[in-house]
Amino acid sequence: MSLERLHVDGTFLKNESGSIVQLKGISTSGIGWYPQYVNELLFKEFKEEWKSDIIRIAMYTEEDDGYCSDGDKEFLKSVVDKGVKAAADNDMYAIVDWHILSDNNPHINKEEAKKFFEEMVPKYVDYTNVIYEICNEPNGNEVTWQVVKEYAEEIIPIIRKYDKKAVILVGTPKWSQLVLEAEKDRITIDDNLMYVLHFYAGTHKDELRESMQKAIDKGLPIFVSEYGIVDASGNGAVNLEETEKWIALMNKNKVSYCMWNLSNRNETSAMVKPECDKIHGFEPDDLTPAGNWLKEMLTR
Ligand code: IDC
Predict the structure, then answer these.
(1) What is the SS3 string spanning 161-205?
(2) Catalytic site residue 137?
(3) Are residues 103 and 138 in contact, defined by beta-carbon separation less than 8 angstroms?
(4) How many Å lie between the centroid of ligand 1 and the Cα of residue 285?
(5) 55 contacts 28 by C-beta, under 8 angstroms
(6) Number of C-beta neighbours around residue 136 at 10 A
(7) How far is CA 140 from CA 113, 148, 260, in A?
(8) 198 lines ligand 1 (CB under 6 A)
(9) How far is the CA of 234 from the centre of ligand 1 (A)?
(10) Which residue, 58, 135, 56, is CA-closest to 103?
(11) Three-class DSSP category at 73
């Protein structure tokens, strides 16, 4: 495998020779719902034709077919495994995303999270492409940064028991928006981590962009592991004007980003048209406006 390990330095991701690296790619939808898109031919296409550097493998913990609800754990782990390996084979980074959402407080499924990382991390110690995202979007008024930080302080040592080098991403309160709260009280037990900010361009505009810039100016390393070019429901109109403002800001700061989502779900954030059953070999006609925009943006 020729991918270089990455590490966090200041607000940047850097490679082994110390150059700044900015990763751009896509996030799957829930892999319990759409496992078919985690396939080698598609990943190869993403790398070669779409110039994607990274795939985020989103495994819901609750919702239907979630890892901690009624999902088939062995199957879900096998999809994560297939995704990490298909990404590695195509020289792409892979985010293993513990996708909390309706389980708004990461402590709700913490014991399962510990078992999951205990089991999965040792498998990838020799993989240079894995990035761990330990809680997608903490949310709810009681889920303050302190609550998330306490969770992170329990999970990070489990990952580090096996993998000393992988970059770890930590979600922030209010669906991964309150990066300024994290900035005021950073995690000190580890320094190879980044704080997560998510935005949906139809919903989140100047105010959240200002938070991002302020946090970066204060030296906080930020990773946008998920963004939508539509509104926060994952649906609604594509908002290219706001999207391009976000892209410009992230590029200026060399922030990495993955677009939501890789599926043919009947929602505007999905990349593939609902009537298209292909799982690779996508032509412009197979893709939604979001899918076509993503390819155009990645290949600029
Ligand atoms: C949405 C999906 C939708 C699914 C729903 C589950 O697009 O098909 O029914 O989750 O509740 C997020 C979340 C992400 C959401 C997405 C859009 O991380 O799981 O996906 N979103 O609502 N944060 C902000 C928006």
Answers:
(1) HHCCCCCEEECCHHHHCCHHHHHHCCCCCCCCEEEECCEECCCCC
(2) yes
(3) no
(4) 24
(5) yes
(6) 27
(7) 20, 11, 22
(8) yes
(9) 6
(10) 135
(11) helix
CB 163 near ligand 1, within 6 Å = no
Q: What is the CA radius of gyration of the chain?
A: 17
Q: Residue 40 catalytic? A: no
User: If you measure from the C-alpha of residue 173 to the centroid of ligand 1, how many angstroms do you get, rounded to a whole number?
Assistant: 16
Whether residue 209 has its Cβ less than 6 Å from ligand 1: no
Regarding the beta carbon of 63 and ligand 1, being less than 6 Å apart is answered: yes
- Active site residue: 137, 181, 183, 267, which one? 137
Q: Which residues are 262's β-sheet partners?
A: 28
pTM flag (> 0.85): yes
Which mutation among 196, 269, 288 tests ligand 1's pocket best, with the greatest number of atoms within 8 A of CB?
269
Q: Going residue by residue through the chain, which has 300 residues, state the pLDDT in tens, using 9 for 90 and above.
A: 479 999 999 999 999 999 999 999 999 999 999 999 999 999 999 999 999 999 999 999 999 999 999 999 999 999 999 999 999 999 999 999 999 999 999 999 999 999 999 999 999 999 999 999 999 999 999 999 999 999 999 999 999 999 999 999 999 999 999 999 999 999 999 999 999 999 999 999 999 999 999 999 999 999 999 999 999 999 999 999 999 999 999 999 999 999 999 999 999 999 999 999 999 999 999 999 999 999 999 999
Rounded to an integer, what distance in angstroms lies between the CA atom of residue 195 and that of residue 180? 10
Contacts of residue 238, defined as CB under 8 A and 6 or more positions apart, other chains included, come to 202, 229, 230, 268, 289, 290, 293
Catalytic residue among 181, 226, 242, 267: 226
